[in-house]
UniProtKB/TrEMBL annotation:
Residues 178-252 form the U-box domain. Pathway: Protein modification; protein ubiquitination. InterPro entries: ARM-like (IPR011989), ARM-type_fold (IPR016024), Armadillo (IPR000225), RING-Ubox_PUB (IPR045210), Ubox_domain (IPR003613), Znf_RING/FYVE/PHD (IPR013083). It is an enzyme of class 2 (transferase). PROSITE patterns: ARM_REPEAT (PS50176), U_BOX (PS51698). One of its GO terms (biological process) is protein ubiquitination. This is RING-type E3 ubiquitin transferase. The keyword Repeat applies. Pfam families: U-box. It comes from Salix purpurea. ARM repeats lie at residues 297-343. Keywords: Coiled coil, Repeat, Transferase, Ubl conjugation pathway. Residues 118-145 form a coiled coil.
Amino acid sequence: MYLVLQRIKTLLEDCVNGSKMWLLMQSDSVANNFHELTAELATLLDILPVKDVEVSEDVEELFLLLRKQCSQAKVFVDERDSSLRLEVLTMLDRIQKEIVPDHSKLAEILDFLGLPNSLSCKEEIENLEDEVQNQQDEKAKSDVIALIGLVRYAKCVLFEPLTPGSDSKTKKSASDVNIPADFRCPISLDLMRDPVVVATGQTYDRESINLWIESGHSTCPKTGQALVHTSLIPNHALKNLIAMWCRELKIPFDTAEGNDRVNGVIKNKAALEATKMTASFSGEQNGGLPVNGREAGAIPVLARYLGSDVGAGSLNLQVNAVTAMLNLSILEANKTKIMENGSALNGVIEVLRTGATWEAKGNAAATIFSLSCVHSHRKRLGRKTRVIKGLMDLAKGGPAGPKRDALVAILNLAGDREAVRRLVEEGVVDVVKEVINVLPVEAAAILEMVVRRGGITAVAAAHSTIKKLGTLMREGSETARESAAATLVTICRKGGAEMVVELASIIGIERIIWELMESGTVRARRKASSLLRIVRRWAAGLDGGFLEGRSAVATPTSSSSRVVISV
């Protein structure tokens, strides 16, 4: 009885917290699910010995009424739902044929679904993006992506309308109008010509996201989440809707004008991130070191001052040399030069391991981070035992600043599966457990990446890690709580029932999740909602993986099963 009621509760929460547009599309399936659960409840009520429970007459009367209603229940789908579902499907079909949707009909659909303004549409888009990650079937993913395009279009034309202006016959360029945010690529900020969806459900222009991935990144630029795969799913519906919008405003769509000049925005975000990390090189001329790091031949010269044999009087020289090497590594061309220069690369690694000061070691770690922004360099660096051990030692024993530099470099290297294996062998999970209270955001991000890249076994073996993340989700900063929730969702999805059991055993975990859903960032609230559904699905026995291994995880007399009742 308890399990059936939990399943009903979970289904209700999924309907309330998920995408309204997707719920409309799944109305028949959801109605069948409710009917099946009602039928199961009716069977249980039939065999419940209510006479032996010794309840009052009023309660018994209510019980009999409930049993009668459950036994007579039939599958029910509101005719209005069916009608609107057909209208949405027809609208999507017409969009594929590049026929402009009826705006009044679109407004009617959104009003019925409770999406009356731009903010509610934004939340609906985010829910649909989450739904992309939940779908395994490719057809279902394509359907959700089409709905994302439709809601983006509706948000723009209904709640953020742009009128052509007085001279509507004159052709404009994309730079002449204020392009809606939903039609812009988050990377280039330009009008999307070929919108595609990545594994996290976010939408980008194909050219921009390809540049991002090819430069060695394995995360979603907008959310920072690791990409489970780098496949790009075209959003044909959104592309057609943008094309129709452009035709209405007399904007050429087929050409890719302006893609390389977007308000001076740097497309290569790796260079931007590396620039933020660097410190300015000292203005002094120390031992003939170049002030301008871009001078020809600077790399071999700097390499001479990176060895472990620097004297006590040359400590500043080593710090300045490795700092200059860090500045040089900002430029893509210089990354390759450093990697190809054996003495320079070995010198940076030597400073990382045996540097004369913590500052020198920290800047060496930051240089490793900068170099590893290129995918091929990341793979090469991740295979070097000295790099892994050097970063791990610095993360364990360094002060806060250098420790953070080491953790950020470790996070970047963890984008490669082979590097994750080496990191796990060197005890990265134990290191993260030690530093999670000091640097929670970096530590949580590393855990999430390790799990995504095949290190789930190591995390699963360290059960206390789950509890530390639970504590962080309750007591950490806003960013740390968001990272902890995202990491726990990944761990539970990848680690299966045992990880969920560990999470469910945390005292007051539902209250912690609810607090995050009420007060966290937008992404934190979405992750907390997913986490709550995972816990409740497990508790209700809806998780297929849990049911298969249930005898090994939670028996009727085990402490785990008692957790189910407390949840």
